[in-house]
Amino acid sequence: MKIDSKTVDKLADLAKLEYDEAGREEIVKDLNRIVGFIEKLNELDTSSVEPLIYLTDTTNVMRDDVVKQEITQQEALKNAPKKDSDYIKAPKVIDKK
Questions:
Q1: Which of 8, 34, 66, 75 is positioned for an S-S bond with 71, CB 3.0–4.6 A?
Q2: What residue ranges do the domains of the chain occupy?
Q3: CA-closest candidate to residue 15, choices 32, 27, 30, 33
Q4: Distance between CA atoms of 56 and 54, rounded to whole angstroms?
Q5: What is the distance between the alpha carbons of residues 87 and 80, in angstroms, rounded to a whole number?
Q6: Residues 6+ positions from 18 with CB-CB distance below 8 Å
Q7: Does residue 83 sit in helix, strand or coil?
């Protein structure tokens, strides 16, 4: 596979990137080197290699969730920029149509 200026322009449009002519040539060179490296890796026989699912054999050590009251509702409302009598008000982020 060969990367050309047309392919780089399409990728730049998709990624919303801007560059000058010198930058385009550098990107073409870099992408061709990356593709060359991947093609070199494809020459290896990996038929006897098991797929890697996890990098290590360790598992997460989880702690039990313990419900505890750190601050009261009044303390939380005291520092809220906008509040109701019982709740912190936040701007609407989802418009239902």
A1: 75
A2: 5-41
A3: 27
A4: 6
A5: 9
A6: 12
A7: strand
Q: Alpha carbon 25 to chain centroid distance?
A: 27
Instruction: Provide the 10 A C-beta neighbour count for residue 32.
Output: 14
**C-alpha–C-alpha distance, residues 8 and 27, integer Å:** 7
**Ramachandran angles phi, psi of 66, nearest 5°:** -120, 125
CATH node for 5-41: 1.10.20
pLDDT band with cut points at 50, 70 and 90 for residue 79:
confident
pLDDT tens digits for range 12-70: 999 999 989 899 999 999 999 999 999 998 898 988 988 888 888 888 888 898 988 88
Residue 77 contacts residue 83 (beta carbons within 8 Å): yes
How many residues are there in the chain? 97
In angstroms, the CA 20 to CA 74 distance is 57
